[in-house]
Design a protein that fits this description.
The structure is a homodimer.
Chain A: H1 6-16, H2 24-34, E1 41-42, H3 44-53, H4 61-73, E2 78-81, E3 87-90, E4 96-101, E5 104-109, E6 114-117, E7 125-138
Parallel strand pairs in A: 4-7
Antiparallel strand pairs in A: 1-3, 2-3, 4-5
Helix pairs in contact in A: 1-2, 3-4
Chain A binds a DNA duplex through residues 20-26, 43-45, 59-63, 65-66, 85-87.
Chain lengths: 140, 140
DNA sequence: AACTACTTTATAATTATTCTAAAGTATGTG
DNA sequence: CACATACTTTAGAATAATTATAAAGTAGTT
């Protein structure tokens, strides 16, 4: 049996609302992802490595992928791509933008970028979201 | 006059300026990519398949990857990513933006999007470029 | 023509991800 | 609260995109 405090409940709710039963593995992943102050950017591989590093009983790769996908589909994680064929996830699901600096990602609050002009969606389509990536390089 | 020759020359120049000797394979890839009116979006796999379809002597996978990478590094192709772990390339290297519509990509001319406000680069960094992706969905 | 450095190619290796199917577990029902 | 059942976990195999290897071929120079 394991203890259940009120904090655990919000993690469990995130899982349930993603259509996932709150198994041990999933609750721990959910805690690891959402029990933090700052936005967290990660790849599934990174998540797996940092969580499994300290565990004697490892969580399997498939479980990490399954859980991250379900959380993403339920809207608890945001997915984005850099130019290296890997999916990145972001625990900040509010609309926002990114700096990319040689593989490092920094959030840009939504209100830091505003548009003067935006194109219309093609016929029969509408805009789902607008994402800005500002690529950085070293000064001089 | 010598329209065909001078055209070939521009393909060869693109290769040379990418640090590549103009071999047969590379000249054909360069022609295939740049001898067209409209912007071309592609993955290396797609490029390989459409070029090799009609050839008796196939060009190898590695050559496609090498050539596309060198052209990209030299600035003759632009790379971008969707959320499917595949690199896409764009023969339109002018600064511009994209609509993403379920894996389909549509160019947005640079002047269709202008900013009212943009954040400053972090200390020691400067902005290399700004890219906007507008994700589309079907109108209800 | 000969030389040398760059290329091509088939194939193996790698990386990220998804699939499979057998063994384990959460949960509603009684 | 036992139990049946549908959902989960897991190791390992499979797949997809890409990169590495090293032997055979070719371009550019001399």
């Amino acid at each position: 049996m394991h203890k259940m405090n009120s904090k655990n409940k919000t993690f469990i709710d995130k899982l349930r609302s993603s259509g996932l039963r709150p198994t041990n593995q999933r609750v721990e992943i959910s805690k690891f992802l959402f029990n933090r102050k700052k936005t967290f950017h990660f790849t599934v591989e990174e998540l797996k490595n940092s969580m499994n590093l300290k565990r004697s009983k490892k969580i399997s790769t498939a479980t990490f992928y399954n859980t991250v996908h379900a959380l993403k589909s339920a809207g608890h994680l945001k997915e984005f791509s850099l130019e290296n064929n890997t999916s990145y996830y972001d625990t900040n699901i509010t609309s926002h933008h990114h700096f990319f600096d040689n593989g490092k990602v920094i959030d840009i609050k939504s209100d830091k970028i505003t548009f003067q002009k935006l194109p219309e969606a093609p016929k029969g389509k509408k805009i789902k979201n607008v994402e800005v990536v500002i690529r950085l390089e070293n000064n001089n």
